[in-house]
């Protein structure tokens, strides 16, 4: 059976891709600097190899024997993604890997206009393609699973409020991480996706109030929208990085998140929206979850822990 190596296997994105690769019948290898307790708990039997994503000498031994590679970037490496994806692409090409599929985890610019930090995604796509490794890139615009993280869920579960930095009129095509995984795995054997990129999102374009209505329905409690300011949200996410991250790096990250949401709330390019009809036309064999379907499978009870806790 073909082997898929999942880069970033310890994170929630990588874990979802492992689930979908196993469900599709592939053998799976986890790739990260260290094997985590979470990976051991969920997938104790999968192969694992250590690699430093910025040390190219460690990549070929980690990828050796892989037919395909799925790539997710660790948050601390976001500023060095061109370097990281270039190294991964070169290693994959040297080994004859059939396809590298990268998930940018944010929108890829597809029209004229100020692209803020999203322009980095274009540079990363180009860097990966220029390595000559057969590659595909997906820009997943906003994850439903963000609502199950420790920094979002505690407000929903314990305080009955959706505390997020979206303007009340902002619309977003939220997508589940398992659907992102399905798309990435499905694309591996699609020749028409080689050398291409595409933004992906879920089947509904929802406002924050519509998200609250869905959360209220599935939890059996009234969940009210309590917008966070971009600055509050940036500090909240930075604090979630933990004590191992230096204070100056936390502040840089907080400022980035603040500016990111200031931009997203007013950007004419609407980075949280996708043309879902086009997505579905390219991927007719994939049924995408609605927010209600996804949320109904989650635990929203008071005191329930979010991912990362």
Give a structural overview.
- The chain is α/β, with parallel strands linked by helices and 309 residues long.
- It has a domain at 3-143 and 175-201 and 271-288: Rossmann fold.
- It is 41% helix and 13% strand.
- It is built from twelve helices and nine strands.
- The strands form two sheets. The protein has a seven-stranded parallel beta sheet with strand order 3-2-1-4-5-6-8, with helices on both faces.
- It is globular.
Side by side, the strands of the main sheet go 3-2-1-4-5-6-8
The CATH superfamily name of the domain at 3-143 and 175-201 and 271-288 is NAD(P)-binding Rossmann-like Domain
The SSE string, one letter per element, is EHEHEHEHEHEHEHEHEHHHH
Say what the CATH topology of the domain at 3-143 and 175-201 and 271-288 is.
Answer: Rossmann fold
- C-alpha termini separation: 35 Å
Helix and strand composition category? alpha/beta
């Amino acid at each position: 059976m073909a082997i898929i190596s999942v880069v970033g296997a310890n994170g929630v994105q990588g874990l979802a891709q492992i689930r979908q690769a196993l469900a599709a019948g592939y053998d799976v290898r986890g790739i990260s600097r260290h094997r985590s307790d979470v990976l051991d708990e969920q997938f104790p039997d999968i192969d694992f190899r250590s690699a430093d994503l910025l040390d190219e000498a460690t990549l070929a031994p980690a990828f050796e024997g892989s037919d395909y590679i799925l790539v997710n970037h660790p948050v601390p490496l976001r500023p060095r993604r061109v370097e990281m994806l270039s190294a991964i692409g070169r290693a994959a090409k040297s080994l004859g890997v059939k396809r590298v599929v990268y998930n940018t985890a944010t929108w890829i610019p597809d029209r004229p206009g100020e692209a803020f930090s999203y322009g980095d995604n274009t540079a990363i796509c180009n860097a990966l393609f220029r390595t000559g490794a057969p590659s595909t890139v997906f820009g997943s615009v906003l994850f439903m699973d963000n609502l199950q993280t420790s920094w979002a869920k505690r407000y929903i579960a314990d305080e009955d409020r959706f505390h997020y930095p979206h303007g009340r009129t902002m619309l977003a095509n939220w997508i589940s991480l398992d659907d992102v995984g399905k798309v990435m795995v499905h694309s591996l054997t699609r020749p028409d996706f080689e050398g291409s990129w595409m933004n992906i999102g879920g089947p509904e374009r929802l406002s924050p109030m519509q998200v609250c209505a869905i959360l209220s329905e599935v939890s059996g409690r009234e969940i009210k929208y309590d917008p966070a300011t971009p600055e509050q949200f940036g500090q909240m996410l930075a604090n979630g990085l933990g004590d191992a991250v230096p204070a100056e790096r936390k502040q840089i990250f907080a400022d980035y998140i603040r500016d990111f949401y200031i931009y997203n709330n007013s950007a004419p390019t609407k980075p949280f929206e996708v043309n879902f009809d086009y997505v579905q036309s390219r991927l007719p064999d994939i049924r995408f979850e609605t927010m209600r379907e996804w949320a109904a499978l989650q635990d929203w009870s008071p005191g329930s822990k979010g991912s990362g806790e």
